[in-house]
Structure formats: C-alpha cells, structure tokens
Amino acid sequence: MANNSQKKALLSAVVAGALTLGFAGMMAKSCGAPVKEQAEAANPALELVDSLASRLVLGLQSDATIQYTTAAGATVIVSQSMPRRAYRGAGVTYISTPDGTYLCRAVAPSPAPSSTKVKKTPQPVVQCDEGPGVDAMSPSQAKAISDAFGGDFMAPEAAMGRLATIAQGEDVRTGTSKRGDAQCVSVTAKGVRTETACVNPGGLLAYFDGTTDAGRYTQLTLQYTTPSVSDEAFLPPTAKPKTPARTPVRSPKPSGTEK
After folding, report:
1. Fewer CB atoms near the end CB (10 Å): N or C, the chain?
2. Which H or E run contains 164?
3. At 20, is the secondary structure helix, strand, or coil?
4. Which first-to-last residue range defines the signal peptide (predicted)?
C-alpha cells in the first residue's frame, strides 16, 4: 500500500504543470495532509475533477495489464506496477521505470543492394532510445508518450490533468454521468469543447473523450484488463528475458545395484 507521499506524487503527476496552487491544496487534502487556508474561493469544478482523480490514484497503485483502443482504431496495451509503466502499440513501445526510460520503434532498414532479380523485403528492426529513470510522470514525459503514438493516445494520468486544466478556464460548466459501472466527469469552458473522463470501480480509466497532450482529439476506450503483469513487460523489445537456472536432474540408479 502506498503511503501519503506516494499518493501525493501520483496526484501531482495527474495535474503537474497545468494548475494553480488552488488545486495543489486539494491534492494535499486527497492525500490526508492538512490544507492551508487560501485567499481564493473554492473551485467546484476542480473539486469534482479531484474527486475522480483520487479514484484513479487507487488504480495506479495496482498491478494490471490494460488494453485500450483509440479513436483511430489503434490498440495500446498498458502494463503497470507502480512506479513502472509500459505502453505498447503497433511498432512502438514506451517504457518508464526508475532504472531507465525507453522509446522503441520498429524501423524498416534500407534494402541492401542485390544482384538477384528477386528483391526481398527487409524485416523491421527495433531501435531504442534510452533515457534516465523516473519515479513519477512529468508533463514532458506525458507529452512524449502521446507523441510516440502519433498523438492518438495519452496516459491515464494525463487524461485527468486535461480535465483539470479546462476546469481552470472561464465560464466553466461540469456534469456527471455513468458509463457502465464507471463514474464520469465532463468539463467544458469558454472556447473549449466538452471533454469527459470515466473511472471504473477498480480505479482504472475506462473512457476518455478529449484532447491529448499532443493536441489531437481522441477517444480512449478500455477493452479489457487483467489484475497481473509480468516483469518482462518492463523490458525493452531488444532485451532478452532472464531464463531461470536449470537444476540438473540425476538419472535414477539401475535396480539391483544398491547393497
């Protein structure tokens, strides 16, 4: 179970770089820390988003393998085991762990010159760029994840941060609804279309309709989830999984040889 500082770090990742100190106070309240008195009036829209974000935090703490589809019909598989995260789609993998971050793409190599008339199509090779390890998602990393998938996908934490950003606008309007067993919050503001996020009872983002960190419209829909994840999910595609050491098996002695 994560402590209060870990929960605060997760909520900070949800809204980092997008909000004023007013919401920082609500983050502290969600984590059980005392909230300092503030001069500005409470923002009901931010309170509503904060309530949904608090449910998402519980899901981020759990081990899970989650499959989403996007508005473009792409499939993205999310593997999570706090603080490790991995996102896999067609030809792209983004992995974030305290030991390192990896952005891997399948790249088609240039065909080698051949004297034969029949030309073989070269098989794609995986190329990975490695970066420093991280414990929590930053705004720059959230955008990097979205960019890696062509702007069609965004991390669940970033989806909640998007709603919180809109809730800071002018003439804000909110709404609540249900999508299956998921609780949904919708937010709109002056000059901004309505965007919606839904979190299911397990604390997982079940649906998002809005704008990604790359500035593109998308819909994320949860297809399935399993409450487990393998360590191999956090290895880059170019790494070989560790194989357990084999215990030598002794052949049985032939019968009648014992004295």
Report:
1. C
2. helix 156-166
3. coil
4. 1-28
Q: Are 67 and 76 in contact (CB under 8 A)?
A: yes
pLDDT digits (tens, 9 = 90+) for 52-87: 999 998 899 999 999 999 999 999 999 999 999 999
Per-residue pLDDT tens digits for 87-119: 999 899 999 999 999 999 988 776 666 555 556
Distance CA 127, CA 97 (A): 18
Note the helical H segments in 16-130: 21-30, 44-60
Q: Could you give phi then psi for residue 196, rounded to 5 degrees?
A: -135, 140
Q: How many CB atoms lie within 10 A of CB 16?
A: 19
**Six-digit token string for 25:** 């106070």
Are 135 and 116 within 8 A, CB to CB?
Answer: no
CA-derived radius of gyration, the chain: 23
What's at 189, amino acid-wise? Answer: A
Whether 199 and 205 have beta carbons less than 8 Å apart is answered as: yes
Of 25, 31, 48, 249, give the one whose Cα is nearest residue 166. Answer: 48
**Backbone dihedral angles phi then psi of residue 85, each to the nearest 5 degrees:** -140, 145
Whether the predicted model's global pTM rises above the 0.70 cut: yes
Residues 188 and 175: their CA atoms lie apart, in Å, by 9
Token representation of residue 38: 């503030």
